[in-house]
Design a protein that fits this description.
The protein is an alpha/beta fold and 362 residues long. The chain has helices spanning 22-28, 31-40, 76-81, 96-100, 122-125, 134-153, 156-166, 192-201, 217-222, 230-236, 256-261, 279-287, 330-344; strands at 14-19, 41-44, 84-87, 107-110, 129-132, 184-188, 207-211, 226-227, 239-242, 267-270, 292-295, 315-317, 352-353. The radius of gyration is 23 Å and the shape is elongated.
């Protein structure tokens, strides 16, 4: 059963417990966002560090140091009063025991992407609303991906290494140079990120294929893409970009057979999750020189230092940095604060997650 609407007495503001480490709070919640939060929330779970004015109300305010150090037991009194949990990277897992000590809790608003790592399914059974800033985190991943597609088409990373050792500008012997014009790009997964990639690819002169069992052919066409089955997508694409969530049914989805179907000189880009790809098969294809790869995620992650993938000229690996970093992280806080503003105004969440969503989201 949903938790009952609490009696707020004379305070119209939502009692909001900040449940994230200090460094996360400082990274994702800007002073401007804190001021917006103060207008609609009584902030709990924070210490006042000696007279520093942050624009938040007194009596549980901070410039940035949550008392939460790793256990909700440390903020039990605040948890008992909390109507909203504002969570972020490093939040302790929210279990039935936590909910038992939070009788007034109405919503969990996550200032980051996936909620699967810390939100127990019992949260949905108890009727607590859940929101995620995954949509905000999708933006930099999509930007990174489209940049990778353009760079992949020009074989930029191979050329970089060739130029470093030879001093010869171009062409690089034995490497196909596609460029963007007329390239066929296959998008595996119309997730939040996948859809943003599809939108951005419309600005390039490329042919786009897409596969997602939850996307209709008409929806694909609206994104300027053609829906096709997986074997055709891999066989027909010069570049394949992976955006499928990691689920039991998607582990190893990019199989040896699909990789073998890619044209010689094809490029696989993965900014999703490493285990979606059969990495042993991908390594064989890359070691042979038949395929190139741009990987922001691997399996395992990180790869062992003796992995040949780390030294191949046709493989470019980044350390899981496509998602929000630096200034980009403030989008997450802004998204979360906007959700709390909606709750305070009695409006529905814009980025709510249901129990049914869990079976198909990252």
């Amino acid at each position: 059963m949903p938790n009952p609407e609490p009696d707020r007495g004379s305070s119209p503001r939502l009692r909001t417990l900040v449940a994230m480490p200090a460094d996360t709070w400082s990274e994702v919640v800007t002073p401007a966002a804190r001021a917006r939060l103060a207008a609609v929330a009584e902030v709990l779970g924070l210490d006042v560090p000696g007279g520093l004015d942050t624009g938040l109300p007194r009596g549980g305010v901070v410039d940035g140091v949550p008392r939460l150090a790793g256990s909700f037991a440390e903020v039990a009194d605040d948890l008992a009063d909390a109507e909203v949990l504002l969570t972020g990277w490093g939040c302790p897992r929210i279990t039935a025991d936590v909910l038992d000590t939070a009788p007034k809790l109405r919503a969990i608003v996550h200032a980051a992407g996936t909620i699967k790592t810390f939100v127990d399914p019992v949260v949905f059974e108890r009727g607590v609303e859940v929101s995620s800033a995954a949509g905000a985190n999708a933006v930099p991943v999509a930007e990174f991906t489209v940049a990778a597609i353009v760079m992949a088409g020009k074989r930029a990373f191979r050329h970089r290494d060739w130029f470093r050792t030879s001093g010869v500008k171009r062409p690089l012997p034995g490497a196909p140079i596609l460029g963007a014009l007329g390239t066929t790009v296959g998008v595996l997964g119309a997730s939040r990120i996948g859809r943003l990639v599809l939108e951005r690819l419309r600005g390039l002169d490329v042919d786009v294929l897409v596969y997602d069992p939850f996307l209709s052919r008409a929806e694909a066409a609206a994104y300027g893409a053609r829906w096709c089955e997986l074997p055709e997508l891999f066989a027909a694409s010069d570049i394949v970009s992976v955006h499928a969530p990691l689920l039991p049914e998607t582990e190893g989805l990019v199989s040896a057979e699909l990789l073998a179907a890619m044209p010689d000189g094809g490029v696989l880009i993965n900014t999703a999750r490493g285990p979606v790809v059969d990495h042993a098969a991908l390594e064989r294809e890359c070691v042979s020189g038949r395929l190139d790869a741009i990987l922001d995620v691997t399996d395992p992650e990180p790869l062992p230092l003796d992995s040949p993938m780390l030294r191949l000229p046709n493989v470019f690996i980044t350390p899981h940095l496509a998602g929000a970093m630096g200034n980009e992280s403030t989008r997450l806080g802004d998204s979360a604060i906007a959700e709390i503003e909606r709750l305070a105004a009695g409006r529905p969440l814009a980025h709510g997650i249901t129990h049914e969503d869990l079976r198909r989201i990252a």
